[in-house]
Every structure is written in C-alpha cells, then in structure tokens.
Amino acid sequence: MSAAYAGYQAPAVTVSSSLPKRAGAAVLIVPVVSSGDDGAEQATAKVLAGPSLPAEAVGQIESALQALGAKGGAEQVTRVVVPALPVASVLAVGLGKPRDEYPADLVRRAAGAAARALNGTEKVLTTLSELDVSAAVEGLILGSYRFTAFRSDKTAPKDSGLREIVALSTDAKSAKQAAQRAADIGAAVATARDLVNTPPSHLFPAEFASRAKALGEAVGLTVEILDEKALEKGGYGGIIGVGKGSSRPPRLVRLTHKGAKRKGKRVALVGKGITFDTGGISIKPAANMHHMTSDMGGAAAVIATVVLAAKQKLPIDVIATVPMAENMPSSTAQRPGDVLTQYGGITVEVLNTDAEGRLILADAIVRAGEDDPDYLIETSTLTGAQTVALGARTPGVMGSDEFRDRVADLSQAVGENAWAMPLPEELKDDLKSTVADLANVSGSRFAGMLVAGTYLREFVPEGVQWAHIDIAGPAYNTSGPWGYTGKGGTGVPTRTMFAVLEDIAANG
Ligand code: BES
Ligand code: MN
Ligand code: ZN
C-alpha cells in the first residue's frame, strides 16, 4: 500500500463559461444572500445571479426558496428543483447579508457547507466561482472530503462520491489557472487530513516515512530517511530519547525541492511527527487520549506543503525536515529526570516525558539550520495551552517579530486565522535546569504555549527569520463539522505555509 501511496485523489475540476444544454444528474450550487433589512424574520433569499443563470431560472429558484422559508443565512443550504435548468436539482447556499465584496473565506465556507450537504452526487456545477474561483473550488474539494480507508461494506458513507466539479466563469482563461491551483491546494490539504486521520495502528514512524517518500518522489523531490541507527550515530538525542519507549523506532525524513534561480530564497519547514502521544512515562489521562492520533498534524502539513511547492514549481528552495516518533511508556522508555543531548550539543533534563514534541523538534530545527535557510517555519500540535489561550480554531504564531506577523497576516488571508503571540524574555528563566543546559518544561502553570516557543527559540540559528505555529487545537476538529471542515484532521496549516512560500517566491 505505502509504495504506491499517492495521496488524496481530488475530484476533477474544469471551467466553463456557460451552462451546458444537458447536465443529467448533476447538481448546480448557487450562492444566495439574505435580502431585506427588516431583520431575519422578513428576509428572503435572493440569488446572487451571475451571467450564466437565465432570469427565468433565477425567478424559479427564488420562489422555491421563499416557499420553503429559506433566508440565505451564511452556510444555510436548501435543495430545490428548477424546471428551467438542465440539472437534477439546485443547491442554494447562503452567504448572509448582501455586500459589495464577498470575502474569500465566506465563499470557501459556503462552498464547503454545500459540498457537505451532497449525498452521492458525482458531478456538481457551481456559480460560486463567479464570486471567487479559488475559494469555490477549495471549499468544494475540502467540504466533500471523507476519510473512508477503514470503512468496510457494512457502514456508509464510503465516499462523498464527488468526481467532477465544473466552475462557471465568463473569464474562463484566468479562471482555469486559478481552478487548477485551487485543486492542487485542495488535494494537498486533503492529503494532510488523510495522514492525520490514519490511525496510529497503521501510521507509525517507518510507515509515515515511507508514505512521505512516495509522495515526495512522485513530484520529483529528493528524499532522505534517517532510521534509528543513523539517528543514534548522528547524535539526534531528542528523537532517540522520545522514540525509545516504542517497539516502532523513530525516523527523520528530509524532502528537498530545488526551485530557486540565482538569488532565490531558501525556506526550511519543520513539522512535529509524533504518530501517537501517550505522554510516555508521564502518561496522559485516558479521557480523549485517542485524539493524540493527531500529534503528527504538523508533519502532515509540512509534507503536504513541500509536495505542493514542487507541484506548483515555486521558484524557491524548500527543504522539509520531519522528525517522526511514537511516544510510549515501557521499560525502554526515557524517564522523568533523564538527561539527553539534543542534536548540536545542548543538554536537556527531561522533567516531563509528555513535553516530547519540543525534544524531537529541537533536533530537527538544528538540522534544518545546517542548510542555511533564509526562513524557517516550524509547526506542531505542541501544547494544550494553545487551546486554552486561543481556542480550537486559532493557531498561535511565535518567532521573529516581522516574519511572525507576516505569517499571521497571510494565515488570516487564507482563512486559517493564525494569531501572533509574543515570546517574553523572562520566560527563559523558567527553563533552567539544576543539572543540564535546559529543562524541557517550566515549573510554572502559566503561558505554556509561549514557554514551548521559548524552548524552540534556543535552537534556531542566529540570523534566520523563523516562525513557530502551534496547532494543537486547529489540526484536529473534535466538535461538529463547519464550513469546509469536517470532523477529524483539518490539514491546518498547509494553506498558511503555502501562502507564505508563494509570498516569499514573489517578494523575497
Ligand atoms: N501533543 C501534546 C499537546 C496537545 C494537547 C495537542 C492537546 C493536541 C491537543 C503535547 O505533546 C503535550 O503533551 N504537551 C503538554 C506539555 C506540558 C507537559 C508542558 C501539555 O500541553 O500538557
Ligand atoms: Mn505530549
Ligand atoms: Zn505531543
């Protein structure tokens, strides 16, 4: 299975400037707004009619929506039958109140909500693309995402069934490019979701590494895998220390995209790949421990991003360094109080084996620094404190002031909504150890997200602009579906990191 592992197979996307004469069983997804300023009671759904919808069809859609009491609220979906159109049915999706401009993420979420409401439809057409092609296509792909690898014939749904998306746009030429880019982005995010959703029984470090290799080689990346012997020999004390409690040994995967022309920039990506986090000897409580299947969400997003960078032929170098380990308690596990030597020589007293992410990441950051990058982006499901501070949907970004803010701004622009957080100098004192250079946890309960960022900062080489994105909550949706995000792996922050890479490629 892993040798041929090809990632998520997204529906095919095409662009058309007009509705076809006949579209059989296809469904047409149409945006509507909530019109009438007399409050929600009086509001009626009005079609945001693009050039491809005949007036007769608009009238039929609106009267059907009125009869059903649909108001066009954001993400509200209503299915209607429209005799004037060549499709089986129309799925109207709300964008809320009318505006001059519709923000990309509003369109993306509406597309996602519409896609989630489909039930076995193989082909959709949409006029959401007349508002924003990229957002419409990304939203449809991500909203229709299902993880079905472990469903037998007994349970449904096996698959959303969506195979084909036709994005309507009068400017078919530029729309075609945007649609293809969006389809690639959607497939990358979905691949990251697949990796997160694959259970820890089936995704352990060696398997994760071989999937990363298959994905990377398929797009021409150079892939290097260090196994446990190479890690031991190379002095990767953090990865070895965390991985040694498991019968399934750790790995370090390196994926290189060489796209830079003369003077092109080089970006290092690092992602936390704990395939399961029990906490180790500092074991976690049983309640919700199964969520720790998501503890490789940073690694999944980093792998998806470097593969996407190669696919999109970005004219920069991107080198992903991905440490992978399983954090287990056993007679071979590291103990609280053990001292290990991180790659590069800094010694660490492991006061809590559940603060394992920073141990594998520190090794990886030092290794990534040896490639002399201009920028370094690291992402990880690092601290429960991230969720306490920012909630389940808002990643925290720390790092060099300017680059941190740039990453947060771009994350806001793509709808992943990361927020800049500080690394106050005084927190470093909390990581003092009585026996080693550093302790891996602070003695205080406060600012856990920032303390973890402070730990990582010790390993970033001087002069490298860096950002750490804590996605403990945002990587994995444990509540209900919303917008284009279903339950389980979300693929965050793949789109943020790709936006940063595109921005660096364009502006340095
Ligand atoms: N993987 C966890 C962080 C996490 C918590 C991710 C909840 C997703 C949801 C991480 O390895 C961890 O256990 N962190 C500890 C750090 C503490 C021991 C300083 C935490 O947050 O409790
Ligand atoms: Mn942990
Ligand atoms: Zn962890």
UniProtKB/TrEMBL annotation:
Cellular compartment(s): Cytoplasm
Residues reported in the UniProt entry to bind Mn(2+) 2: K272, D277, D295, E356
GO annotation terms (biological process): proteolysis
Role played: Presumably involved in the processing and regular turnover of intracellular proteins. Catalyzes the removal of unsubstituted N-terminal amino acids from various peptides.
Species of the source: Mycolicibacterium flavescens
Superkingdom, taxonomy of origin: Bacteria
Cofactor note as given: Binds 2 manganese ions per subunit.
Record: active site: K284, R358
Record-linked InterPro entries: Leucine_aapep/pepB (IPR011356), Macro_dom-like (IPR043472), Peptidase_M17_C (IPR000819), Peptidase_M17_leu_NH2_pept (IPR023042), Peptidase_M17_N (IPR008283)
CDD domains linked: Peptidase_M17
Residues the entry annotates as binding Mn(2+) 1: D277, D354, E356
HAMAP family: Cytosol_peptidase_M17
Domain Cytosol aminopeptidase: start-end pairs: 352-359
Keyword Transit peptide in annotation: no
Family classification: Belongs to the peptidase M17 family.
Cofactor annotation: Mn(2+)
EC number: 3.4.11.1, 3.4.11.10
Keyword Acetylation assigned: no
Major subcellular site: cytoplasm
Reaction equation(s) it catalyzes: Release of an N-terminal amino acid, preferentially leucine, but not glutamic or aspartic acids; Release of an N-terminal amino acid, Xaa-|-Yaa-, in which Xaa is preferably Leu, but may be other amino acids including Pro although not Arg or Lys, and Yaa may be Pro. Amino acid amides and methyl esters are also readily hydrolyzed, but rates on arylamides are exceedingly low
Gene Ontology MF, one: metalloaminopeptidase activity
Alphabetized UniProt keyword annotations: Aminopeptidase, Cytoplasm, Hydrolase, Manganese, Metal-binding, Protease
GO CC terms of this entry: cytoplasm
Protein name: Probable cytosol aminopeptidase
